[in-house]
Design brief:
Layout: H1 15-29, H2 48-60, H3 71-84, E1 92-96, H4 99-112, E2 117-121, H5 126-135, E3 139-142, E4 158-166, E5 183-189, E6 213-217, H6 218-221, E7 229-233, E8 243-246, E9 249-254, H7 264-298, E10 303-305, E11 313-318, H8 323-328, E12 335-339, E13 342-348, H9 356-366
This protein binds pyridoxal-5'-phosphate (PLP).
Pyridoxal-5'-phosphate (PLP) is lined by residues 42, 98-100, 103, 125, 127, 166, 168, 170, 189, 191-192, 217, 229.
Length: 367
């Protein structure tokens, strides 16, 4: 940051100079998520149409808190929820800035329904523990089985609990068995793998339609710029208990956020541009890339593959114990995760421009 002032400048450099400075820095100093070698994180390069509409939206600064200050955007959000909720067996919901918030919203609703504690797996995302903490609910993490799924044999009675199952765990991309668990509220954190439901792999999420709520990050596998996610509910009246009205509000404020932008517009435009088939083709390309890389890793005696990938995430490590050093050479291509106390490389297929042959070449060179 040497080219940026250390203290708040007294005099401005002018909009043109600031725009040039920041445009150049953004272009040259950001992680290149759409690079052929990018295969590391759950952050896709956003679709061009979505990125352009985020910029255009910013020029009109619509606020979803007030329908009269966001007439088109409010309609669009209703429509896109009407499109997507039924895919998951849900009937209503709203957009929010990320699945951290979507999980918090779901567990808030669960508490209103009488849930007195939160039960999930040890591989659940940290936002679930965080939400329990914020809500003042005791939190319990049940061990996962050898495959990485919540081990149902270790579940004690959960009649008074909100149970959170994960569709696409952050570290391993594993989909918990989604069959209902007897409990006060069943939430599925489908932040990552939710969009698989729209593809030929949709059956991997069977059971999700029996949850009370579902969280999905559109800024992950729906290729949206941040901040775009949604919380969906099965019961049509579920949002009433998490809505606050009065004072200056003409309509009740639903959920955790107050003011929020029109993320539904780029999302709906992307879905119209691609159609369900076009979106599925992108995700299925990501899935095929993961399978191909897994096959190459599995066939190399110098490497150990943790397990066959099921939702676009795979884990591997060198058999000679050099994981730390190898990972240091693979920044941008691989990320990391701990499994059973050991370090593994992690690949996430969020980038439709990834080139598996080049990625494999880089991994081999790093060994
Ligand atoms: C399974 C899961 N849940 C929740 C989250 C949090 O989502 P966000 O980053 O959109 O807040 C993540 C993020 O990686 C995740 O992988």
């Amino acid at each position: 940051m040497q080219d940026f002032p250390a203290d708040l400048p007294a005099d401005g450099i002018g909009a043109e100079a600031a725009l040039a400075l920041f445009s150049d820095a953004i272009r040259t100093r950001s992680a290149r998520l759409g690079d052929a070698l990018a295969f590391a994180h759950m952050d896709p390069p956003p679709l061009d149409i979505a990125a352009q509409l985020v910029g255009l939206n910013a020029t009109v600064n619509q606020n979803l808190l007030h329908p009269e200050a966001s007439p088109f955007a409010t309609e669009v959000e209703r429509r896109v929820i009407d499109w997507l909720a039924p895919v998951f067996g849900m009937s209503c919901g709203h957009l929010c800035a990320g699945s951290t918030l979507a999980n918090l919203t779901a567990l808030w609703r669960a508490r209103e329904a009488g849930a007195r504690r939160v039960v999930t797996s040890t591989d659940a995302h940290v936002s679930v523990a965080k939400a329990a903490h914020i809500l003042g609910l005791p939190f319990q993490a049940v061990p996962v089985d050898a495959h990485g799924r919540l081990d149902r044999s270790q579940l004690e009675p959960t009649g008074d609990a909100a149970v959170v199952l994960t569709a696409g765990t952050t570290g391993r991309g594993v989909i918990d068995a989604l069959a209902p668990v007897p409990c006060r509220w069943l939430h599925v954190d489908a932040a990552w793998a939710g969009p698989l439901r729209l593809t030929r792999y949709g059956a991997r999420l069977d059971g999700i339609e029996q949850a009370d709520s579902v969280a999905i990050s559109a800024h992950k596998w729906l290729y949206q710029p941040k901040d775009s996610a949604m919380i969906l509910f099965r019961a049509a009246d579920a949002q009433e208990a998490i809505s606050f009205g009065g004072s200056y509000l003409a309509t009740p404020n639903v959920g955790v956020q107050g003011s929020r932008g029109a993320a539904a517009i780029p999302l709906m435009a992307s879905l119209m541009a691609l159609g369900r088939t076009g979106l599925a083709a992108l995700i299925e390309k990501n899935m095929a890339d993961t399978d191909e890389l897994a096959a190459r890793i599995g066939a190399d005696p110098r490497l150990e593959l943790k397990q066959a990938p099921e939702a676009g995430v795979l884990n591997w490590r060198p058999v000679d114990g050099s994981t730390v050093d190898v990972l240091a050479r693979l920044a941008g291509t691989s990320s990391r995760t701990m499994i059973d106390g050991a370090l593994w490389a992690r690949q996430v297929a969020a980038n439709p421009h990834a080139d598996v042959a080049s990625i494999w070449g880089r991994i081999r060179t790093a060994l």
